[in-house]
Amino acid sequence: MEDRHVQRAVIALAFSICLIGGFEAHAANNGDEDPKLEKLSAKKLEQLETRANEARSLYSMGDYAGAEPIFRELAKPFTVTRPLYRCELAMCLLSQGKNDEARVLLLESYGDLLEFFDPKSEKKAVRIWGKESGKIYKGDPYEQATLCLLLGALFLEQGDVDNALACFKSGQLADSDVQNEEYKADYALLQLLESYCYHLREQPDMCNQLAQTGVDSFMSIAGEAQSDAYIAPLTQPFNTLLLIMSGEAPHMIRQGEYGEQRVIVLEAQPTNRYEILLDGERWFDAIQGVGDINFQAATRGGRQMDDVLSKQAKTKKTTYEIGDTFTDDVGGLAGLFIGSIIKGVSAAMTVEADVRCWQTLPGSIQPVPLNLPPGEHKFDIYAFDGYVYSHHTPTNTDIRPGELNIVFVFPKNL
């Protein structure tokens, strides 16, 4: 069993190298040079985040066109947060049907995350004088895995099966990058789409193996609440895949005496299921639980940086207490002078956790696999909170023959 996991990791790494090669070719074709990081102060980075929050607010209200120019402005300069703003801009574009541009942005972000490393910002982040948010944004495992999922789906839409396969494998590597190896690689939608790639490559053994892995991952999470028949449509051939972006992504806040603890907050998800009426005739259910981003975020945490920040917070508190001791016990001007200096050193120590996160992600991605004849089709997507109707989103799609048709759906509840 262990040998098989090692073998899969090696294969995934090989495919990832191929994908990086494709990214380098894309950069060369566009005349891009090696990026040079624009150094910004902590205050300026906070101003960028304030501006980004304006765009995120518009996005959450369904004003994707209004959020787009703000994210475009933020994504232009190569700052430590550019990969995040590119990802958030890509979601704005996907919501408006601009899939080609979204694919380019996600591919560039993937390249930023894998290739770019600024030793100065990384070293400064782990010192007591540097903010963690001053390092290059690389995202949590759930963000990296979902980036790979979305990028892979966009490659599949283009018929680029090899790069799609590389993305789904890379996403599972990111998904398994967790402390203590708990909840290792259980992102079922990644595994099921990898299985679909092997179906397209006419490799039935690998297709069946990955399909079973995806089913096992889903069942390990769903438990007795569902049967494997529930996700059987994802293990069989299909030519159309609706990906419904449901709910809002997790966000992060600071806790602890000095803000050194990062806590992931899950947003309330009023809509938990969707029913789809196809061409006014047939009903289908969206499949829940295979792309639950909230679950992926909630079951992961405890990064290496958290331990560093915890130690920094203890140092900051100890330093301040030493300053108090000099002021109170030594007394006089000398004690006050020395104590003030030591307290000043404590105040200058920066231990705040990095709470940057991809806030334009949905809370979950609910797929609907279908087999449809070529031509125009209408989907009426009805959202429910349990069995209580919530809202309705109509969309039309032209199904191309002989291809996989990916339809990204962003239901609006305005």
Overall average residue pLDDT:
78
Question: What is the number of E strands?
Answer: 9
Percent of residues in β-strands? 5-15%
Major β-sheet profile: 4 strands, antiparallel
- Individual helix count: 13
Order of helices and strands: HHHHHHHHHHEEEEEHHHEEEE
Spatial strand arrangement across the major sheet: 5-4-7-8
What form results from the Cα inertia axes? globular
Distance between the termini: 49 Å
Which structural class matches the secondary elements? alpha+beta
Radius of gyration: 24 Å
Structural description of this entry:
This protein has helices at 2-29, 42-60, 64-75, 82-95, 99-115, 119-125, 141-157, 161-175, 188-200, 204-222, 293-298, 304-330, 332-348, and strands at 240-246, 251-255, 261-265, 273-278, 282-285, 364-370, 375-385, 388-399, 405-409. It is of the alpha+beta class and 414 residues long. The strands form three sheets. It has a four-stranded antiparallel beta sheet, with no helix packed on it. It has a three-stranded mixed beta sheet with strand order 6-1-9, covered by helices on one side. A two-stranded antiparallel sheet has the order 2-3. It is globular and about 55 Å long. The N and C termini lie far apart (49 Å). Mean pLDDT is 78; it is low at 1-7, 9-13, 121-130, 301-323 and 341-350.
Can you give me a brief rundown of this structure?
This protein is an alpha+beta fold and 414 residues long.
